[in-house]
Amino acid sequence: MSAAGASPQRATVEALLTDLHSSPLTIDTWARLEPWAVARVTFGGAIAPRSVIVKWVRSHPGGARAEPWRLRTEVAALRFLSDDLGLDLAPRVLAADLPGGLMVLEDLAPRTALDHLLRRDGAATHVGRLAVFAHTLGRLGAATAGHAGIHRARRISLGPIDLPTDRGSRLVRHWDEARGHAAALGAPITGQAEAELGAALAELSDPGPFLALSNGDAETNNVLLHESGPADARLIDFESAGYTHALVDAVCLHVPGPAWMTVGDPVATGLADHYRRALTDGVPEAEDDRRYGFGLSAACISWAIVRLQRFAVLDTREPGDDSRAQLVETLEAAARTATAHRAFPHLTGWTLRTADLLRRRWPDADLDFTDTAAFPPYTARR
């Protein structure tokens, strides 16, 4: 929207920018980037930069992503990366008004979200950019491993911490609910599969040298790259950032996230290797095939189990809904990853049996996801 129609936060932003540049500034345009609580703001004068990004806490308490801690979490993570570690992996925080619930960020334009490029052109056109994405995720883990104390101190200085997003896998807290859905489906996790699930939980809860910072949502919509020219990616959306098992961020390369039906074979495309080599620069233990495979398999299967929470909702949808087939492929892709790394054989068996139960329950989801003509890598979920 124009400056005249901007939100009441306009005056706060003008004051922050004036203080930042030590001279009065007036906003020219305030363009809301729907559907997010984000706007691109431009201002005139002989000042660089000429535009910034403003992000604020949503104004509906109790609504999605409206918790005040999210802003504190993002400001702490971004300043930790740029100011404490000197990294260029994310936008810089230019100014913040935490009591007022907003921050001003470096504008990363003309970079654009990778998921937009994949949807528009297909993955085959952007193999190189996918490789940069994988490398950047690995680089984030490598650069932040061993620095949890510095990050925690910075985060605590900004206010109360939301513990589930501060440390440990975000996957773990959803498992009990997912296990209930598995039992309701007729596929309870018992016996040796249950014991392996406990081992996976222990791995994710105590990552050891793999403890690293994650933005909390490592997916292609949260990385910005140039459509042409320099391949310097920037990660965004650190609202749920926290230290967790580094290999949780690698899951998106092996198992479909919410946006995709399939992500293809990251080993064949080299994405898995791009991520692992970058991570090894800061986490030498990633060179150990057994240890790396165990952690990656734990993260992938855990993600699949968490996604099983959607079973009750998907069961009520009309036949042909892409979300049903997506859940099947999520389970099977996680199982393929664990099988390739010879990890969790009993839990892998349970995962495949559950996928088969869903195929029989939902004949419309009984599809061949290995058919790359029908399901090329990064086929978007409708």
From TrEMBL:
The lineage of its organism: Bacteria, Bacillati, Actinomycetota, Actinomycetes, Kitasatosporales. The keyword Chloroplast does not apply. Keywords: Transferase. This is Phosphotransferase enzyme family protein. SUPFAM superfamilies: Protein kinase-like (PK-like) (SSF56112). One of its GO terms (molecular function) is transferase activity. Residues 67-278 form the Aminoglycoside phosphotransferase domain.
